[in-house]
Write a structure and sequence with these properties.
Low-confidence stretches: none
CATH class of the largest domain: Alpha Beta
Shape: flat
Largest sheet: 5 strands, mixed
Strand content: 5-15%
Radius of gyration: 25 Å
CATH topology of the largest domain: Nucleotidyltransferase, domain 5
Helix content: 40-55%
Strand order of the largest sheet: 3-2-1-4-5
Order of helices and strands: HEEEHEHEHHHHHHHHHHHHHH
Distance between the termini: 50 Å
Structural class: alpha/beta
Number of helices: 17
CATH superfamily of the largest domain: Ribonuclease H-like superfamily/Ribonuclease H
Length: 349
């Protein structure tokens, strides 16, 4: 694992001659309040390495070295967002193996499925609950992490050959550029609506107000101890507590410390004391029935899409999912934002 300045300097020098570099990331969102980058896996033809972002090492030289490279990723969106937030790194060019596989017409495009398809190798399954922040990193976890990039470069070569043979390389480049654009857009959480967890819609009036206060209390508690909110209180317990407070049945959790128990009760009482004018308003469901003309347009787009998908032997939803067809049928000016040129061409827009 690369965890010192000299090791990083050596790696940066090795990256120099290579135009295409495979990258993957591992993050921790199950053991801390804010998601953090824990591992950065890198593969070049001669070497597979893991960089430790949690070590006391300045990764700016690595970020700069990667700036002009084509970055190979599998399902790029999550990794691109993580790299931008944690390393301030935004690649200029990417090769997303998922996009390539779908453009070729491969229906099973998980990393394990593609490694099996191209190399006949079965990858070991990893745990979704693994703590990637633990150090030292267990050997089995390190091996799992390295396998995420070990096969990407030769896989990209094979995918590129197939894309060229099908004359779809330009389509691929368009889709990768769009993936970069979308990953650069921040997904802001609506703090006024974030408390509406699954099941919140069943609560009425005062109970909703109490739930909102309890949710805000849980967020502050989780941030203070750097733990995920569900470590403080699970959603179902939050919902149950709101209902019990509303019914004048003060809930109690024996595992809470005295301080946390007091803060929890204070949050519930704040919700109880809110006047009706300050209770949350149930969100309205917007939407209108499509006109006959829009329905006709949707059907026309669907026929174009399905005909093209059958002819090209690719998944019709990869050309355009149903929701996209409906949006464009209602407002064709949205086509440029929702589709790249090759998709619009197939839909005859």
């Amino acid at each position: 694992m690369i965890a010192t300045g000299p090791q990083l300097t050596e790696l940066v020098a090795e990256l120099g001659p290579h135009d295409r570099i495979a990258i993957d990331t591992e993050a921790d969102s199950l053991h801390c309040y804010r998601e953090k980058l824990c591992l950065l896996q890198i593969s070049i033809p001669e070497r597979d390495v893991i960089v430790d972002p949690l070590a006391d090492v300045d990764l700016a030289p690595l970020r700069d070295a990667l700036g002009e490279k084509e970055i190979v990723l599998h399902g790029a969106d999550y990794d691109l967002r993580l790299l931008r937030r944690n390393l301030n790194f935004v690649p200029q060019r990417i090769f997303d193996t998922v996009i390539a596989a779908r453009l070729i017409g491969i229906r099973e495009f998980s990393l394990a499925a593609l490694v099996q398809h191209y190399f006949g190798i079965e990858l070991a399954k990893g745990s979704q609950k693994a703590n990637w922040a633990q150090r030292p990193l267990p050997a089995r976890m390190a091996e799992y992490a390295v396998n995420d990039t070990r096969y990407l470069l030769p896989m990209a070569e094979r995918l590129e050959t197939e894309l060229n043979s099908l004359n779809r390389m330009e389509w691929f480049r368009q889709s990768c550029r769009r993936a970069l654009e979308l990953a650069a857009i921040d997904r802001e959480r609506d703090v006024d609506e974030a408390w509406r967890i699954s099941g919140a819609g069943a609560l009425r009036d005062r109970a909703s107000a109490i739930l909102r206060e309890l949710w805000n209390w849980r967020e502050k508690e989780a941030e203070a101890v750097d733990r995920p909110p569900f470590h403080i209180l699970q959603n179902r317990e939050l919902l149950d507590s709101a209902e019990r407070f509303a019914a004048d049945q003060s809930p109690d959790y024996k595992h809470f410390s005295d301080r946390r128990r007091r803060a929890f009760r204070e949050a519930g009482e704040r919700g109880m004391q809110l006047p009706e004018r300050d209770w949350p308003v149930r969100p309205r469901r917007y939407g209108t029935r499509a006109t006959a003309e829009v329905v006709k347009r949707i059907e026309q787009l669907r026929r174009h899409r399905d005909h093209a998908a059958k002819d090209l032997q690719i998944d019709s939803a990869f050309i355009a999912p149903r929701a996209t067809l409906e949006a464009i049928a209602a407002d064709q000016t949205r086509a440029d934002a929702l589709l790249v040129p090759w998709q619009r061409e197939l839909l005859r827009i």
